[in-house]
Amino acid sequence: NVLDQSKAGESFMAWKTSPYDVACVISQGLADSSVVARVTYGNYVSDYDLVEDGMDGEDLLAEAMEQDSDENAAGKAVLWDMTRPLVGNVAKLELLKFDGDSDAKTVFWHSSAHMLGEALEHLYGCRLTIGPPLKGGFFYDSYMGTKGALKDDDYASVEKEVQKITKAKQKFHRLVVTKEEALELFAGNPFKEQIIKTKIPDGTRTTVYKCGDLIDLCRGPHLPHTGRVKAFAATSHSATSWLGDTENDSLQRLYGISFPDKKMLKVWKENQEKAKARDHRRIATKQDLIMFHDLSPGSAFWLPRGTRIYNKLIEFIKEHYWNRGYDEIITPNIYNLDLWHQSGHALHYQDAMFCFDVEGATWAMKPMNCPGHCLMFANSIRSYRDLPLRLADFGVLHRNELSGALTGLTRVRRFQQDDAHIYCREDQIEQEVIASLEFMKDVYDTFGMSYKLELSTRPKKALGEIELWDRAEGALANAMDQFAGKGGWKVNPGDGAFYGPKIDIKVMDAMDRVHQCATVQLDFQLPIRFDLKYNTGSKEKGKEFERPVMVHRAMLGSVERMFAVLCEHWGGKWPFWISPRQVMLVPVHAEFNDYCESVREKLHNAGIYADVDSSKSTFQKKVRTAQVDQYNYQLVVGKNEVENGTINIRNRENQVEGEMKVDEFVEMCKKLCVDKK
Q: Active site residue: 421, 581, 650, 652, which one?
């Protein structure tokens, strides 16, 4: 529909009409519930200038935010304050609500972070640093000086102060300032001053937002006013350092969550309690799966039963490799740093690598496998007949994560990936991507998890020829159309890696939480850096050799992280095929212990994890303990079972499944493993 005038008949005009005005024509309820507008301009009016409007520079929070944006060029969708006048011919206007769009949540939580910053200034007189939105809330870092650290007891006073800010319905005002004016505004705050001096070029402009008595450096957009935030909670706090450098000032980080409805906050809190019960750190400790030690922080010690699950995950992927034409390889763990200079990783990634001296040269533990795989490809003369070449590697990787960022198994220093790289011809991209997506589907169908696909396209800092990017993006789009159907995936414009477009695969667990695990990425740059070539078979001069396209792909991603995701997805109730405790034999009397042991041995020989509870506990306690320990089956053995050569089956939900011959039960277990049930 085309809207060009208000209900009163006044024509919409640039510099005057806002998205809020347009929304009011449709309904007042829509206008009041919309968080932000997504605007696609056909063109800007002649007297609008991006530079003068402070929109041409860098987003000062871009590094801290978990979502990127590309909001400058006409013809691309940009997020726009609901009350900010429009500045051109609008080809498309989308009004985004909190519960219907991730961009709306980001804006809502960004505005809430400003409110949190204002409350912290009121209560503690602190120096604010940065306060970005996250995928599930927001935080603000502040310098408290000698006032000490935040405590749990402070949450109530912060929430009360935010409530005052909400009731005041403070408007968010967008202001454009010069670099000099910004320095004057933030004089006395060395953190903001450093951002301004290092991020804003001389002679340019930037934007700030004002709400109440808070003024903050910000690209925006924001809510119309603070009254939109109906529910707020401080959720956690931690110590951090300015710019993540432990040599800098120590800061206090306070996390928060907010919603436009109090019922949403109540549901969120209930889900948080469920998540705590499913926390993989709690379950893994309770089930004796892993441990950590201060002498090797960020590196899990895999206990025997945890190792069973870890190995099963790897075996599961290896079965797929065998059936899907992958070759497994083993590559070194340490390399001369020259390799990482050649690959380009040293320039941007060296601080996250474990480096050390070897005979006067700098070496490093590998943080990824791809450069090593390129050395292997380059080691032989390759023909077009050799492609696609699918190399899979479960090599151990190390990344020097900051100690404060380490979190259970989701952020570690030592891990393994189901990492594979496919070297193929350009005309093979589509078929290899489809095969990778089918691989992914089989994996997550087995786990009982749903997924969404997103195509991330050429970013501003992309390397390589635009024509090659266009062809590659077209091949990915065609592959996704064939796999998911048209409309079965979405585009993330400008969110690809600098070396090639990628397919982001977002998987949802049993609590509808989103995880980024699997990925399929194209890489045009590493083949260039390592001068990879294959013989095309052509006799035409100059066309005898071409470069392969490199496809990075992972199904699980980090095995450690996938372990954590599955642990919480299943709540510690591991399916039989991957369970570290599959069968517990429960003799009703000690005289049946030997029979139980013979059954256990038969199960063990069939590859089933079985134990015998020969303790002096009562029969009822033995059964209950096995169920609490999440044994999939308890096999009760008494006089009848011994005489009949059977066992009596109960599952961990305490349902009695009845008597069965031992050999039949063994075959049933083997089938469960084969069928991944």
A: 421
C-alpha 511/C-alpha 425 separation (Å) is 41
For this structure, is 374 an active site residue?
Answer: no
- The residue among 103, 140, 91, 110 whose CA lies nearest residue 495 is 103
Q: How far is 60 from 321, CA to CA, in rounded Å?
A: 44
State the Cα angle at 669 between 665 and 673, rounded to 5°.
170
Does the annotation count 417 as an active-site position? yes
CA-to-CA distance for 98 and 88, rounded, in angstroms? 26
Q: How many residues would you count in the chain? A: 677
**Catalytic residue flag (residue 253):** no
The type of residue at 157 is S
Q: What angle do CA 353, 359, 364 make, to 5 degrees?
A: 10
Of 419, 495, 523, 611, the catalytic one is 419
CA angle 604, 605, 609 (to 5 degrees): 20
Q: Read off the tokens for 622.
A: 């033995």
452-505 pLDDT per residue, tens: 999 999 888 887 788 888 888 999 999 999 999 988 999 888 888 888 899 999
Which two tokens mark 267?
Answer: 């549901």
Q: Examine the residue annotation and report whether 225 is marked as an active-site residue of this protein.
A: no
Report the alpha-carbon distance of residue 10 to residue 4 in Å, rounded. 8
569 is catalytic: no
pLDDT digits (tens, 9 = 90+) for 292-349: 999 999 999 999 999 999 999 999 999 999 999 999 999 999 999 999 999 988 887 8
Backbone angles phi, psi at 128, to 5 degrees: -80, 145
Confidence of residue 62 (pLDDT cuts 50, 70, 90): low
Report helix, strand or coil for 673: helix
Is residue 447 classed as helix, strand or coil in its secondary structure?
A: helix
Dihedrals phi, psi of 457, to nearest 5 degrees: -100, -175
> b/e map of 583-601 (b: 16 or more CB within 10 Å)?
bbbbbbeeebeebbeebbe
Which residue, chain included where needed, has tokens 């005057």?
A: 16
DSSP structural state of residue 657: E
* Dihedral, CA of residue 279, residue 284, residue 318 and residue 481, to nearest 10: 0
Beta strand 290-291 pairing with 327-328 = unpaired
Q: 309 in helix, strand or coil?
A: helix
Backbone angles phi, psi at 329, to 5 degrees: -135, 165
From the DSSP assignment, how many helices (H) and strands (E) are in the chain?
Answer: 20, 32
Q: Which two tokens stand for residue 466?
A: 């635009």
Whether residue 585 contacts residue 635, with contact meaning beta carbons closer than 8 Å, is answered with yes
Q: How far apart are CA 119 and CA 531, in angstroms?
A: 56
Q: Which of 552, 581, 622, 652 is catalytic?
A: 552
Q: Count the neighbouring beta carbons within 10 Å of the beta carbon of residue 195.
A: 20
Q: Which residue has the tokens 């199960």?
A: 603
Ordered DSSP codes for 58-108: --TTTTT-SS-----STTSEEEE-TTSPP-EEEEEEEEEEGGG-HHHHHHH
Burial class (CB in 10 A: 0-12, 13-18, 19+), 167: exposed
Other Cβ atoms closer than 10 A to 551? 24
**What is d(CA 76, CA 55) in angstroms, rounded to the nearest whole number?**
14
Rounded Cα distance, 560 and 299, in Å: 10
Give the rounded distance of the alpha carbon of 351 from its chain centre.
21
Q: Single out the catalytic residue among 366, 399, 553, 569.
A: 399
